[in-house]
Design goal:
The protein is of the alpha/beta class and 235 residues long. The protein has a single domain, classed as Rossmann fold, CATH 3.40.50.720. Helices cover 43% and strands 14% of the residues. It contains nine helices and eight strands. The chain has an eight-stranded mixed sheet with strand order 3-2-1-4-5-6-7-8, sandwiched between helices. Helix 2 links the parallel strand 2 and strand 3. Helix 1 crosses helix 9, helix 3 runs parallel beside helix 5 and helix 4 crosses helix 8. The protein is globular.
């Protein structure tokens, strides 16, 4: 039995990914910083709830101990993320960017990935086929954000793309350092979720496709890559 933990899984892409992986036979832990929402989501899915706030060391450590006590972990999906908005509801652009705003967003999107990966790495190393999926974004592609005339180029935010570039670099460096794991970054696409005020142009079912696909790879699968539903992406 493959055991999977998904951070930020009580709604949106995390919830849909959990549903799909349970259908594929995985035992899934729904990581949620809100215990009641996590419990309700787990009940709906037939999953296990685990309290996990990716911005809190003690919360992540406790979650790792709970999962270890239940038997271990094979797949980690670092899904929890925030886009970051100004008081007026706009994305954080260059004029609005402050160190505090950047720090808050990085605390979840970047440091959260490091914190959770570090805590669960000992469990993953005991697995016969350990997999890590980091949910990135097309906005983390330097090639895309510098391609004039594209929607990615036109995105005005600064902090969110910067955080996803960092996630991509973490993915590459972790993959090189830990060759026994399969570690990849994925771009779900512009999916309608609470992250973007449900303004996305595709469904969570479509967005979860590449996350699920990369969670299901075997020990002979790719590592250190960056993918969307159509294949590899340019860095």
């Amino acid at each position: 039995m493959t055991t999977t933990l998904i951070t930020g899984a009580n709604k949106g892409l995390g919830f849909e990914t959990a549903r799909r992986l349970i259908a594929a036979g995985h035992t899934v832990y729904v990581g949620s910083r809100n215990p009641e929402r996590g419990r309700l989501a787990a009940e709906r899915l037939g999953a296990r709830a685990v309290l996990l706030d990716v911005t809190d060391d003690a919360s992540v450590a406790a979650a790792a101990k709970a999962v270890e006590a239940d038997g271990g972990l094979d797949v980690l999906i670092n899904n929890a993320g925030v886009e970051g908005r100004t008081e007026n509801g706009g994305v954080i652009g260059a004029a609005e960017l402050t160190a505090d705003r950047m720090r808050t967003l990085f605390e979840t999107n970047v440091f959260g990935v490091v914190r959770v990966t570090h805590a669960f790495l000992p469990l993953l190393r005991r697995s016969a086929a350990p997999v890590v999926v980091n949910v990135s974004s097309g906005l983390g592609s330097m090639a895309r954000v510098t391609a004039a005339g594209t929607p990615t180029y036109a995105y005005p935010g600064v902090a969110y793309p910067a955080s996803k570039v960092a996630v991509n670099m973490l993915t590459v460096q972790y993959a090189k350092a830990l060759p026994e794991l399969r570690i990849n970054a994925v771009e779900p696409g512009f999916t309608a979720t609470d992250l973007n005020g449900n303004t996305g142009t595709q469904t969570v079912e479509q967005g979860a496709e590449i996350i699920v696909r990369m969670a299901l790879i075997g020990s002979d699968g790719p590592t250190g890559g960056y993918f969307d539903a159509d294949g590899p992406l340019p860095w």
